[in-house]
Design a protein that fits this description.
7-stranded antiparallel beta sheet, 4 domains, single chain, alpha+beta
Length: 753
C-alpha cells in the first residue's frame, strides 16, 4: 500500500514563542480528545503519571447527546478529562461550558495520517485476543472476526456498522461530533473540524509522539520520561498477502478518508485558521433566561382555567390506556395518529426524518419547497438530537411547517410544553400510556421567536429525555451524577408541592419544573436560581402537610404512589447528605412518577379481570425501589443490594381486584441472620412469606387478597435487622452497607373458581 504524505515532527501549538509556551498550562485542567489508533494510549499513560487518581475522570460511556447536563457538570470535579475513552468535540464544548468562569482548559489531541490509521485499526482487530472477544458487543465481535478472517481489501468493503464508522473520516467526525456531523455537508463538516482543531492548545501526530509529550511536559512543568514515551497497543503484523491492496482499494481508501486527508494536509502544512479569542467569563453566553421567558410567557392571555381545561381535553382518561400491546401494534397506533395529524394539517409534503417506510425523506423528493406548501416533519423523540440542527434550519422555510414528535415519554415537563399554546398544539396519548404524539407548530414558532426559539425548544425537549429518571440510572456514580440527581429531585418536588397546595392554576408549578430544562449554553445548575432557595427537607414538610388534601382529590389508583413517595422522601430527607446517588435517583423517580399522576389525574379505574399472565418486574428499572445501591450484574442475572439503611420500599404494580402471589427473588444476603430476621409489610400490614429456592435464588412468596390490590399497586416494605459491608465481613474491600440483594419480583394471578 502506497502512502504519500509529508511527515511532521513538530506538533502544532497555539503559542508560537517558547517563552509564551513555557509553564503556560500550570494549574489548568486538561481535556484529551483521544482519537482511536493515534498513539493516544501512550500519551494517556504519560498523563496518568502526573495526576492523582482522584483527579482523573473515570470512563463514562452514556448513550446521550453532548447536551446532556452531566457533561458540563463533570468538568467541575476532575482535573484530567478524556483519558481511557474516546470523546467527541461536542463533549469538549460541554466541558468548556462547565468551566466558563475559570481559566479555559488545556485542549490536547493527536492526529494520524488517515490511511495509516485505517491500516492500524485493521491490524488491532485482527490481533484481538479471544478473552477480549467475550466482553465485546455483537457489532464489535463481527468487526473483529471480519478483520481476522478477511484480507484488508475485503475489510474496506465490509457493511458492519462499526467498521463503517471507523472507515468514514472518523478523525474529522470526532472533531465535530458524530451526531452533528450527520446533518452537515462535506464542506461544512471540514470547515467545522478545521475551526474546532484551531481551538486546541496542542495537536500532535502519531509520528511526533515524543515531541508532543515533550511540549506537554514543558507547558505543565513536568519532567520528561527518561526512556522516552512507551508505545502501547502495538499490533502484530499480519501476513503480507492480507495487506495487499489494488488500485481500486487505493481509490476506495482515498474516498473514505477524503476529509481526514484534507484536515491532515492543513495540519502538516500549517494552514489551520487562527485560534479564536478566549471567551470572556464575565460575559454571559445567553443574554437572559430565554428558555424560561419563552415557556412561561408564550400565552400571556390564556387564563389558568382555560389551561387546565386544555390539559383535561388533551390528556383525557379515555386516551390513557394501560393495556399491553405488541411493539408492532403500538407503532401502528402511533402512525395512525400521525396520519390523522397530517390530514388535519392538510399537508402537501411529509418528511420522515427517521427513514421509516411510511414517508419519504427530503432526499427522496429533491424538488425545491414552494412557499405555500404545508410541510410536516416526523421524528422519533429518542432520535430528536440527531435532527435538531436540520430542524432549526428548516423551521424558517415553510411558514406553515409542523413538527410531529412520536413515541415520547409520559414526562410532566412535556405536559408543561403542551400547555403552551404558542408552542404545542395538542398531544395524543396512545398505546400503553408511555408513548405519545406531540405536534409543534414549528413554522409559527420560528416566525415568532426566530431560529433561537426553535433551538431552545428542541434543546429543552431533549433535556426531558436526558434527565428522565431512567436516564439518570444508567450514569456512573460520580459526584456530578449526584449533583444532577439532587437538582432534579429538588425541582420536581417543588412542582409537586405547588400542585398539591394549589391544584390549579398550573403556572405555580411550571417555573420550578421547567427550570431543569436550561438552554445548553447556560449553566445547568445555576446556584442563584430562585428554585434552589427552599431545600428538600422543607419541601418535604410542606408536601406532608398537603398529603390529606391530595388523598381527597386523587383517585384511589394514585394513593399507593402518594404514600410510597412520602415515605421515600421522609427517609431521603433524613439522610440527604449521606445517601448514595442511587438512593437520590430512586427518590427522584418516585417524585417524578407522582407528578405524572398529579398532572394527568386519571378518573377511571381498569375493570376487574379474572385471569392474566404472570408479571415479572426487573428491580433495576421497572420497579420503584427506595434505599438500594446501584445495579450489579448483567442481563437476567442483574440485582440490587438493599441498603445502606435497614428499611427499603418497593412499589409493585398489580392486577386490581384479584388474588395474586407476589414472589421476591433474593440473589444473596450479607449474613444469614439478615434474611432470618427480616420483617415484611404489604401496604403497611405485617406479612409472613413462604420461602423456597428457585433459579439459584431464595424466593419469599406472599399471598395477596383482592382487597389489597384494589388500588392497582402494592407497597412492599422490607426491614432488615441490620446492614453490614463486605469489608466488615472480611469478604472484600467493598465498604457499602448492605442487607439483601434483590433480582426481581414476580406476580402470579390466582384464578378463582
Amino acid at each position: 500500500m502506497n502512502v504519500s504524505a509529508k511527515s511532521i515532527f513538530v506538533p502544532h501549538r497555539r503559542h508560537e514563542s517558547d517563552a509564551a509556551w513555557h509553564h503556560s498550562a500550570v494549574g489548568r485542567r486538561l481535556v484529551f480528545l483521544h482519537i482511536p489508533k493515534t498513539a493516544g494510549t501512550a500519551i494517556t499513560s504519560f498523563l496518568r503519571e502526573h495526576f492523582d487518581a482522584s483527579e482523573v475522570m473515570p470512563q463514562l460511556e452514556i448513550p446521550f447527546h453532548r447536551s446532556h447536563p452531566i457533561w458540563p457538570l463533570i468538568a467541575r470535579h476532575y482535573q484530567l478529562l478524556g483519558v481511557g475513552m474516546h470523546l467527541e468535540h461536542e463533549h469538549v464544548d460541554a466541558f468548556q461550558r462547565g468551566l466558563a468562569n475559570e481559566r479555559p482548559p488545556f485542549l490536547l489531541t493527536v492526529l494520524r495520517e488517515p490511511k495509516k490509521r485505517l491500516l492500524s485499526q485493521y491490524k488491532e482487530w485482527r490481533s484481538t485476543s479471544d478473552a477480549a472477544m467475550h466482553v465485546a458487543t455483537d457489532e464489535l465481535k463481527d468487526a473483529i472476526l471480519t478483520a481476522r478472517t478477511r484480507p484488508f481489501s475485503d475489510f474496506l468493503r465490509s457493511e458492519n456498522p462499526m467498521i463503517r464508522v471507523t472507515l468514514d473520516n472518523l478523525q474529522t467526525r470526532l472533531l465535530v461530533g458524530r451526531n452533528l456531523s450527520r446533518t452537515l455537508s462535506d464542506a461544512e463538516l471540514l470547515s467545522r473540524a478545521r475551526h474546532n482543531l484551531a481551538q486546541y492548545d496542542l495537536v500532535g501526530t502519531t509520528a511526533s509522539c515524543d515531541a508532543t509529550v515533550a511540549l506537554l511536559a514543558e507547558a505543565y512543568g513536568w519532567p520528561l520520561p527518561e526512556s522516552g514515551t512507551p508505545r502501547r497497543h502495538v499490533s502484530k503484523l499480519p501476513p503480507a498477502a492480507a495487506l495487499a491492496t489494488t488500485p481500486a482499494d487505493e481509490e476506495l481508501m482515498a474516498a473514505l478518508t477524503a476529509l481526514d486527508q484534507a484536515l491532515w494536509d492543513d495540519l502538516i502544512n500549517d494552514r489551520l485558521p487562527a485560534p479564536p479569542a478566549t471567551h470572556d467569563p464575565s460575559r454571559p453566553l445567553v443574554p437572559d433566561s430565554f428558555c424560561t421567558r419563552l415557556l412561561v410567557d408564550a400565552s400571556p392571555d390564556a387564563s389558568p382555567e382555560s389551561l387546565c381545561d386544555a390539559r383535561a381535553s388533551r390528556l383525557s382518561p379515555q386516551e390513557v390506556s394501560h393495556e399491553s400491546r405488541s411493539h408492532a401494534e403500538y407503532l401502528d397506533r402511533i402512525y395512525d395518529t400521525v396520519e390523522r395529524v397530517v390530514h388535519k394539517h392538510a399537508a402537501t409534503r411529509v418528511f420522515d426524518l427517521d427513514r421509516r417506510t411510511k414517508y419519504p425523506m427530503p432526499a427522496d423528493t429533491p424538488q425545491p419547497l414552494a412557499n405555500d406548501e404545508r410541510i410536516v416533519f416526523v421524528v422519533r423523540y429518542t432520535a430528536l438530537s440527531y435532527h435538531a440542527s436540520y430542524l432549526v434550519l428548516q423551521a424558517a422555510l415553510p411558514p406553515a411547517g409542523l413538527l410531529v414528535i412520536t413515541e415520547i415519554d409520559n414526562d410532566p415537563r412535556l405536559l408543561a410544553w403542551v400547555l403552551q399554546a404558542d408552542v404545542s398544539r395538542y398531544a395524543t396519548h396512545t398505546g400503553d400510556g408511555d408513548g405519545a404524539v406531540v405536534t409543534v407548530r414549528i413554522g409559527a414558532l420560528s416566525a415568532a421567536h426566530g431560529n433561537d426559539g426553535v433551538r431552545v425548544l428542541l434543546e429543552s425537549l431533549m433535556r426531558c429525555q436526558q434527565t428522565h429518571p431512567a436516564a439518570l440510572k444508567v450514569l456512573q456514580d460520580l459526584p456530578a451524577t449526584r449533583e444532577l440527581a439532587r437538582w432534579q429531585l429538588q425541582h420536581a418536588l417543588a412542582a409537586v408541592v405547588a400542585v398539591a397546595e394549589k391544584p390549579c392554576p398550573p403556572d405555580e408549578w411550571l417555573i420550578p419544573l421547567l427550570a431543569t430544562l436550561r438552554p445548553e449554553d447556560e449553566d445547568p445548575l445555576p446556584s442563584d436560581h430562585a428554585g434552589l432557595r427552599e431545600p428538600v427537607p422543607s419541601l418535604t414538610s410542606r408536601f406532608q402537610d398537603a398529603h390529606p388534601l391530595l388523598l381527597e382529590t386523587l383517585p384511589p389508583s394514585s394513593a399507593p404512589q402518594l404514600h410510597f413517595t412520602l415515605a421515600v422522601l421522609q427517609a431521603a430527607s433524613d439522610h440527604l447528605d449521606t445517601a448514595p446517588t442511587a438512593h437520590l435517583v430512586d427518590t427522584y423517580q418516585a417524585v417524578f412518577t407522582l407528578l405524572c399522576h398529579l398532572l394527568t389525574r386519571p378518573r377511571h379505574q381498569p375493570s376487574p379481570r379474572t385471569a392474566a399472565p404472570a408479571g415479572l418486574f426487573d428491580c433495576s428499572s421497572t420497579l420503584q425501589v427506595s434505599n438500594a445501591h446501584r445495579l450489579e450484574g448483567l442481563g437476567t442475572e442483574s440485582f440490587r443490594w438493599l441498603g445502606p439503611h435497614q428499611t427499603s420500599r418497593i412499589l409493585v404494580p398489580v392486577q386490581p381486584n384479584m388474588p395474586q402471589q407476589l414472589s421476591v427473588f433474593i440473589a444473596a444476603f450479607i449474613d444469614p441472620e439478615v434474611f432470618a430476621g427480616a420483617t415484611y409489610h404489604l401496604n403497611g400490614i405485617p406479612a409472613l412469606p413462604v420461602c423456597s429456592v428457585e433459579n439459584h435464588c431464595t424466593v419469599a412468596t406472599f399471598a395477596i387478597s383482592p382487597e389489597a390490590t384494589s388500588a392497582g399497586a402494592i407497597e412492599l416494605t422490607i426491614t432488615a435487622p441490620f446492614t453490614a459491608s463486605e469489608l466488615e465481613k472480611g469478604l472484600s474491600t467493598d465498604p457499602r452497607q448492605k442487607s439483601m440483594a434483590l433480582r426481581q419480583v414476580r406476580l402470579t394471578p390466582q384464578v378463582t373458581a
